[in-house]
Amino acid sequence: MTKEAEAIVVRKTRTVVGDRPSHFHSDPDTNEKWQCNSPYCSAADMPHPDNGGPAPIVQGYEPWRR
Ligand SMILES: [Zn+2]
Question: Residue 42 sits in which domain range?
Answer without folding.
Answer: 15-59
